[in-house]
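Quick question, first post here. What does this chain look like in 3D?
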Amino acid sequence: MPAFTLALALGADGVELDARRTADDVVVVLHDPSTRRLGVLANVSFDQLRAVRPEVPTLDEALDACAGALVNVELKNLPGEPGYDADDRIADLVAARLAARDGADDVLVSSFNLEVLDRYHAVDPARPTGLLTLRGFDPRDALQLAAERGHRALHPDVRGFSRVAAAVVERAHELALGVHVWTVNDATRIRRLAAVGVDALITDVPDAARQALGR
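> Answer (accepted):
Ran it through. Tokens below.
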């Protein structure tokens, strides 16, 4: 939570966070599938988590702290990781929480897991969704896949993206998709990607990024 507050104070347009579920289906913000002293998060109740890790916020608490800013909610549920749920319940749980907030939030939902993302899109088709990809996934192929599945954005790893950035951005905009690149911290690369028209840069240094962009 302090990181979200600081990022916005430094001029970020929004924040990115990771959504996972507890054993009793509370959506919390945590990157890793396991937590120290408790083990696999999916096997731990929210009360147990809050007792040991009180700093871990619920999704609602994080959204409240980021009111007025864009929030990129990444759905975490990958095959092979501890607590993996083949039913992809995290998609339904996040959709339910956002629906309960009655449109109060500016949220884009993303995931590396295409099945989870497809599930979310089926449950909440009006919400923009973005496909996250790692370095080894050709951004041109990923863009086509995202478009075919009805997603609204591609979130490519900057490593391996720069060499095809101009072509990918041009094609994405033809398909009415956004391109949000992660994680871009180098000032020269920030300026270069902005120049070819990417729609967002995900960075650890929003103040330095703003300076690089002359903002």
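Residues 89-100 form the longest helix (12 residues).
The chain has nine helices and ten strands.
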